[in-house]
Amino acid sequence: MTNRAVSVAGMQTLGAAMSIDVAREADELGYTSVWVAEANAAEGMSLLGAISQAAPHIGIGTGVLALQLRTPPLHAMAAATLQQLAGDRDVFLGVGISSPAVAGQWHGAGYGDRPIAQTREFLTLLRECLSGETVTFDGDFYSVKRFRLGLKLDDRKPKIALAALNKQMLRLAGEMADVVLLNYLPASLVPWCVERVREGGAAEIYAYVHCAVTDRDRYLDLGRKDLLNYMVVPAYAMQFERGGFYEEVLHFQKAWGRGHRDDALAAISDAFVDAIQIMGDEEHVQRAVQEYADNGVDVPIVFALPWGEDRRATVSATLRALA
Hints:
The chain is an alpha/beta fold.
């Protein structure tokens, strides 16, 4: 496995300076791209702009932006700006339909009831906006009249990455995106996802691998609490069921529905945490990341978990183990 990326999403709440420092280290270690997230901490585009200058060799990507929060023309403008800053490096514009909590509640942008249709229309218009041609578009979700991107792009243009969990979105990613982004899944579920993507087309398969060279027993409960935040999202709950954790999801939902948070947390078994939040020594983490690659991931994205007495040291140890 030679092609691998890194995400700073797990440390974005610790400040922009740390994210930039980690990106610089990843660049020096030979990682091919660095990815940022966007929810309620760092704004993704400005952070990547800073990273593009601080880490001069590494590709940059958003993983992911809630597509409801910017119009397709504005996404195109931002991605084109990053491509100019990055020059001949890869720029990935990673988007996703997000969740009702992030898009609807936190940002007040609404969520909608036709996610597949909206995403298809968004990607169609986004590609047209990135073409440099004059675009007039009138769809169910977006309407644009005579937009033309004012930044000139050479042969290298931003690649579109789509976050996908379930069957229809995975097929759509295969059909319309350059890259599909998988997240919060055990390595054993990768082949199923790849099959769905290939039903749509030839998008490259990238996957976040949540991992850390750290004390697994000490931080197991942190992994459990992190998974709780995703168990309450229906799309992720379905993915966890497909990944072999049907009983855990069932018990969790019953306890959560009764308002018993502690019982819901206890329903997330140690085996469940170990399958997705990979912690241990260097060899254990190396084997786990390789398993994702062996199961069909083209580019594993190391999502370093900053869990340890010295968070920055944990991230560094993880990146170095996988470099």
